[in-house]
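Record now logged for everyone:
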Amino acid sequence: MIRRLAPIAAVSALAACGLPPMVSDTGYLGTWSRGNDRNVSIVAIARSGDRWWFRWTKRSFDGKLSVLCGWDGHCEEHLLGELVATYDITTRYEDGKLCTDTIEKRLAPEPTTLQYTDVMEVTDGGRTLWNYTSDRNGEHYEGMARPMRSFSKVADAVVDPPAGSPE
């Protein structure tokens, strides 16, 4: 448990002192965050040899919404305590880019299955992770037409790394 909380405590301590956390350019590896006044998304990326792991967490500040994923790529989304969706995320490295292929099964308000591929790119000296949706339900997107979001790096390491990773 202490190992799990140490990176979060370190980032929090630096933020409390008004200092930005020390992060370096580790490529995709590390912990990334994005948020707004309603929620925060955190992406953790780890690697061992040729294998990549991707874990996503999303929580609303009011506690009503959460998406929790394991290193195995399986996720559950809960709204007001009810399971409303599951996600199965497969991570791959292809053509110099880290990619995720996702099958999203919405259970409410009505059952729907979505499939999409996201391609990631690290910029800004290793401080920004861009996530571009390249394909969604058979539709392909190019350039600025791609849905995109950015994450800021908060740590070089990940909390609770997957078994077999060197962290």
